[in-house]
Amino acid sequence: MATHGISTVADARAAATAWLIDHLPDRFAAGIPAYDSPHEGWRIPVWLAYPGLPPLGPVGELFMDAVSGEVQAHTPLAQMKTQALHLYDQHRAAIDAPLS
To answer: Which of 30, 43, 61, 84 has its CA at a distance of 20 to 30 angstroms from the CA of residue 69?
Structure first.
């Protein structure tokens, strides 16, 4: 991999987290980025997550240019929100359970 503006998994994840904070409500989290060599960018899964629970599941993906650090493509926000609602409904009992 050549020298890039975003050259590490940690940097890609941090940039994705910042993008998610700007575009979606809380509970959306960046997963582990994977470098896409042919496209010189990072594919970063977006997960629904709640404190005290493992991530509930993927809701979409971001593609971030490794040179500029800009998100070039993403699953439509409305689609990610709809998928998050489905996952919430599937895991409602665990989410609503009192913390011990």
So the answer is: 84
* pLDDT tens digits for range 35-74: 999 999 999 999 999 988 999 999 999 999 999 999 999 9
Distance CA 59, CA 37 (A): 24
Element (H, E) at 21: helix 9-23
Q: How many Å apart are CA 86 and CA 3, to the nearest integer?
A: 40
pTM here is: 0.88
Residues 6+ apart with CB under 8 A from 87: 48, 56, 57, 59
- Count CB-CB contacts under 10 A for residue 86: 13
Distance CA 24, CA 31 (A): 15
Q: Per the structure block, which two tokens stand in for 16? A: 């994705």
